[in-house]
Predict the 3D structure of the following.
Amino acid sequence: MTSTYFHEPAEASTNMEVPARVLAIGAHPDDIEFGAGATLSKWAQAGTAVMIVIMTDGSKGTWDPEANPLNLAQVRQGEARKAAGTLTGSAEVEFLGWRDGELKANDRSVSQLCYLIRKFRPDAVVGHDPWKRYRLHPDHRAAGFATTDAIVASRDPHFLPELGAHHRPNSLLLFEADEANHCEEFGEVALRLKIEALLCHRSQHLSSMEINNAGEGTELRQFRETVRSSGERTGALFGVELGESFHLIRGL
């Protein structure tokens, strides 16, 4: 006879206990800032140690057909470091070096993330929701599944024992969530730092933020308002003024 496990759907929650250590995993430079920037900033202000992991080199993140991908990858790495420092003050950044658009959730990527989880030993992991429907970009799906697979590998002592002592995080927060069940409320300081961190990614101003750097500032003001409006809409769904939403999984 087989056993069936059934979990009652959890009610929506707001503001989990501030974690001591957080590992945030993004497919590309700027993904983490868009998905969880204000939350990470808020936690860092409360004393959380943050490690940011960027899985691809971002070398194809431009609409310019004449751009040199190798040069762009170097530029984006510098932008990511600056953004991380802006967001949290002292975030450690790990670049895993996958070519943009070619990330796979496979033995290599899972091992890379498992190693970092066991090394950093986070209380919480933040990453892409791999189950988001109608997602077009393959890197986001792959990053999400590599993250969930690495959590399983890192927590169990007989998985990849050569990568260090096993470690089980307390919680996983998936941004871009298809079914959000959790909100982290944030204030004006975290909002400002999220926007400033995003703007550190100057190579993405036109393609991702619709900002013409040669313009007179109208598009920049619109972008700031767009980020604020997104926080307000999310917050309204959870009864707070400003918020970022996630699918929160506990009991990993």
